[in-house]
Write a structure and sequence with these properties.
4-stranded mixed beta sheet, CBS-domain, alpha/beta, 10 helices
Length: 257
């Protein structure tokens, strides 16, 4: 298995993808606009949060569900009470920031002009970024197993059926002129099972217990399947997305070894 350069991996996952790539423009209303009009627009456009303008500039925000009678500016909150992030914040840091809230404002050219919700992470560019990150983690697990078992001593952690499936794939790939190892022919779930059942590998991979390793490996596989088949990844996979984002820098260290 060929590994990419340290520079390329770090650039793609830590620096190149930033908040401005997926931020939506923040809708705004003059503070003297009646709530009835504002609610009608926000409901029709499915906008839960909007900015309040004073002399043409955003000075706070309103929540659709809080609006009642009177002027919308009465219900304004200062931006200081919300999460406001620079448009240059990398995606991995954005995911960390969205752990405690479902949305964040984005500051562009000194003004709060954008918004990002967790649902924006469903966009195709983010899904491709996440798929690449899951693949990077799988390569990390591959390298750990390869270093620990240079002579393929890992077979006993898998069922005979899974080992046979890998051997069948190995023969097929060799028939096509490729030169893989048996380890190259394992599925992510197979590598996860090996990691989970070997105490030293679990420790090197950062798992506190076999049960935790099994749980995370299953969630990683579910996330990859949902990404590949255009399924929802926020309601079902948010916890594992946060987890792998938190470990990006740690995992990327292995490219330098």
């Amino acid at each position: 298995m060929k590994y990419p350069s340290t520079y390329d991996v770090e650039r793609v996952f830590l620096r190149s993808f930033v908040a401005r790539e997926i931020a939506d423009p923040l809708a705004s209303f003059d503070g003297a606009t009646p709530c009835e009009q504002v609610v009608a627009v926000m409901t029709e456009d499915e906008i839960p949060v909007a900015a309040i303008r004073l002399r043409g500039r955003p000075v706070g925000y309103i929540l659709r569900d809080e609006l009642r009678d009177g002027l919308c500016g009465v219900y304004a909150h200062p931006f200081e009470n919300a999460l406001v992030l620079p448009d240059s914040i990398p995606l991995v840091e954005l995911i960390h920031a969205l752990q405690e809230t479902s949305w964040a404002f984005i500051r562009i050219l000194g003004e709060v002009a954008g918004i990002i919700t967790r649902q924006d992470l469903q966009d195709p560019p983010v899904r491709m970024w996440l798929f690449g990150l899951v693949t990077t983690l799988e390569m990390h697990f591959h390298k750990l197993i390869q270093a620990h078992y240079p002579d393929q001593g890992w077979e006993h952690y898998l069922s005979p059926k899974r080992v046979e499936a890998a051997r069948v794939l190995l023969e097929e790939r060799r028939r096509r002129g490729q030169s893989p190892s048996l380890l190259d022919c394992l599925q992510l779930s197979d590598k996860g099972q090996i990691i989970a059942r070997d105490a030293e590998l679990r420790r090197e991979a950062g798992f506190a217990s076999r049960n935790r390793a099994d749980e995370i490996m299953k969630r990683l596989e579910a996330l990859r399947n949902n990404l590949a088949h255009s399924q929802d990844i926020i309601d079902s996979d948010w916890e594992v997305i946060v987890l792998i984002a938190a470990r990006v820098e740690e995992v990327l260290k292995f490219w330098k070894e």
